[in-house]
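## retry 2 of 3
previous attempt timed out at serialization; input unchanged, resubmitting
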Amino acid sequence: MEKRAFTTSDIGRICHHSRETVKRWLETGRLKGYRVGTSGHWRILPKDLALFLKENNIPFPEPAEIAVDLKALTETESPITFCWEFYRDKRNLHVRPEGTCENCLVYRVKSINCYTLREEVNHKRIYCKHSCQDCAYFRFLREKIKPAI
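## retry succeeded, writing output
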């Protein structure tokens, strides 16, 4: 079965670094990842790990070792974007007048599943003015990663 997401421990083993180093990479944006629900644990998509390994000249592990061929992902697929990256170059104003992406809880915790986070916090500190069904980013994710949503 193919791996759908990696933990900080998984990344530490693959890159030969500690979990704490991996967390720093995630917190500073050096490695792209997302937070899971209320626990706040980090998860890294295989595509994002593959790009990180390639950009940092870290050897790719054997596919049998980790249940996914990371090297193949760097050649064929583009990474999934976060909502603030998705809207960055668009002329669509998706935040309320009193908020910005940088103030939004989704941005602060780097959650790719903004709709899940929105349910958890009851719309508080989420600055998006759209319902998920009306959101272009939500529709984009549904099409791009259907099995995970």
